[in-house]
Amino acid sequence: MSPLRPLSRAVTAVLGVADIVLEPLQNRIGLRRMAYFFLLPNLLIFGIFILFPMLLNFYYGFTTGESILPQNREFVGTQNLAKLLDCQDFRNPNTCNEDRFWRAAGNTVVFVVVEVTLIVVFSLATALALNRKIIGRGFFRSVFFYPVLLSPVVVALIWKWLLQQDGLLNALIVSAGGQRQPFLIDSGWAQFWAIIVGVWAQMGFYTLILLAGLQSIPPDLYEAGEIDGANAWTSFRFITLPMLMPTMFVVLVLSLIRAVQIFDHVFVLTGGGPGTATLYLVQYIYTTAFQSRNYGLAAAASLLLALVLLVLTVTQLRLGRRAEAA
Amino acid sequence: MSQPFTVTRTAPYTGGVVAFLTRLQGGSRFTTSDLLTYAYLLIGTVVMFAPVLWLVVSSFKQERELTAFPPSLLPYWQQTVAVPGYENPLDLYDVTLEDGTVKRLAQISRVGINAQMIDPENPDAPPITVNIRQRQPVRYLNFSLQNYNEAIVKFPFVTYLTNSVIVTVVATALTLLINSMAAFGLSKYRFKGRDVLFVVILSTLMVPVSVILIPAFLVINQVGWVNNLLGVIVPGAATPTGVFLLRQYMLTIPDELIESARIDGATEWRIYWQIVLPLAAPALAVLAIFSVMWRWNDFLWPLIVLSRTELFTLQVGLNAFQGDLNVQWHYILPMTVLTLLPITVVFAFLQRYITTGIATTGLK
Asked: How many CA atoms lie within 13 A of A30 on its CB side?
């Protein structure tokens, strides 16, 4: 960190000047109450921009009107929620009042299930491969991790360029004797690629977590297993998997919570289309609020999304505690 | 003193051919599972890295090459030649003439399937009409920065870049300052309501911006920060993740250190910045790296707060241009490369901090 030393000196010098004001303050309010001073800036921003909006969201969910100003909005009770939930058959969005919401919800469920499964499978396989004694382990680890750092916009543009009609992938298919595929124009393909690109961009992150979990398994266990005659498969099945369960669980929940909120890369890659093929819940909220200006409906939808996230988080805490106790 | 950020560093690995032959699983033999491992990792490397490489290579291509199908693997540019009597340089082609000979000619114009060509060596001779099937463009390999220059000149790339840098730097500095202050308050003092406060902060860890979009936008609107970089910078600064991370780290700093500083007459503020901050440097470094990544890559929130082009960050600007019906890839590609460049450089230099930081804290 030596190149950062002059920087940190400069920072501490600037911070030191603050004592001109803060010393009298401490003399005035006393040593213990300085805790409040230290907490103040963070709490102020936290309260105004996170906590207060969280509570206000309920108000929006139960009001209607064109205006975003709370005082100009009309209280309608559960009307927004009722409109969202007004459905004869939830599996068929055509029977629903707000069909776009249910299409988005259905798409999100499919997205979450498939993406999370693929992420768990591939990050586990990669972590197991990287945990072996191989040449260039650091290199491979970096390669798999690198896309994690890229912004969702960049990720989407990289793939859009690759998947377009005249793109490299279609060229490879044609040169292998196949037909050009409408990767981003056909709904089935668009859904497929929305998921694959998500897995591509994120699996390195979960690979790292699983790798850390694998490396924290004591080697003695494997030695003991070997003495007891365990082969590669049995030691994987009866040592690695059970020992890795808590980490697997973290991966599962983190990827689940993130998958439910899918927005960025799909928004740039497909814009939610074709039609509503890749319309997911957050994009539904975003477009309903900021393009259709229906803040009440969007807020009601985000309350439902928050509920799902709450259930997932509570499940995580519950199961996490059980895993710790076991 | 325990150091939570270095616990799970991977075991050091010393490579080399001898080690390769002796350290494989099950002794010295190259087993099937080793083969499978390498095959998987190599295929994975291609899948993970080829798309990025393709983007970078394509960004150097000439505009007309970008729409060619099948695309050439490397950036080839059309060879041109200046011919007296013509204002612009003319494209060069290898033309197969009717008698079977191949001649290098310059194209004046093209109508349908016929092209008017002249010999650049002999520009005064009358032009010949050639079927376009009979001519092959003369191209040369060229990693030219022309696309980059044009993208930077024709699009407000520098403005976006400036905005992104301002947002990233100011937000990270603010995050580090207020998060470390809060963490210090939460870890080194005992006061009424401390634990409740900590739980409230923690509980919002799981509240993503997507859930509070509308009311958060209202607050920004009322504060007057719509179309203001402050509206992008400030709300995310009080990140619960950062407070949590730093608090856990500061708990490992012994209280005796602080007590003895108090006896020596240090003010609380002085204790914070001269004792606690330097000792928490590893945790601050991890948070700084993450904050830079979060802010540089942030998309949904800036998209909502900023609607004036001159305030766009790189991510929002890139998105705006790719949304056009007629995507101008020869500008989009170089701008995308320039956007991923800083993160790539940061990764190359701070890779160990990032990977161990993630493995130990599980945050992103």
From this structure: 4
A208 touches B at CB < 8 Å? yes
Write the secondary structure of chain B as one string of H (helix), E (strand) and C (coil).
CCCCCCCCCCCCCCCCHHHHHHHCCCCCCCCHHHHHHHHHHHHHHHHHHHHHHHHHHHCCCCHHHHCCCCCCCCCEEECEECCCCCCCCEEEEEEECCCCCEEEEEEEEEECCEEEEECCCCCCCCCEEEEHHHEEECEEECCCCHHHHHHHHHCCHHHHHHHHHHHHHHHHHHHHHHHHHHHHHHHHCCCCCHHHHHHHHHHHHHCCHHHCHHHHHHHHHHHCCCCCHHHHHCHHHCCHHHHHHHHHHHCCCCHHHHHHHHHCCCCHHHHHHHHHHHHCHHHHHHHHHHHHHHHHHCCHHHHHHCCCHHHCCHHHHHHHHHCCCCCCHHHHHHHHHHHHHHHHHHHHHHHHHHHHHHHHHCCC
Tell me: pLDDT of B6 over 60: no
Domain check: are A32 and A122 in the same one? no
Domain that holds residue A42: 23-52
Note the ipTM here.
0.82
Residues in chain A within 8 Å Cβ distance of B344: 146, 149
A164 and A43 together in one domain: no
What residue of A is the nearest CA neighbor of B298?
A: A151
The domain defined by B149-361 folds into: MetI-like fold (1.10.3720)
How many residue pairs bridge chain A and chain B with CB atoms within 8 Å of each other? Answer: 305
Query: Which residue from B minimizes the CA distance to A261?
Result: B210
Q: What share of chain A is helix, strand, coil (3-state, %, to 5)?
A: 75, 0, 20
| Consecutive 10-residue averages of pLDDT for chain A (326 residues) | 67 79 85 88 90 85 79 77 77 77 89 95 92 86 89 92 88 88 89 95 90 87 86 86 86 86 89 86 88 85 86 76 63
CB B313 within 8 A of CB B163: yes
Number of separate domains in chain A: 2
| pLDDT for position A276 | 86
Check whether B11 has a pLDDT greater than 70.
no
Question: Which of A50, A129, A204 is the closest to B37 by Cβ?
Answer: A129
For residue A205, the chain B residue with the least C-alpha distance is B358
For residue A271, the 8-state DSSP code is T
Chain A environment of B232 (Cβ under 8 Å):
none
* Chain B positions in Cβ-Cβ contact with residue A313 (cut-off 8 Å): 206
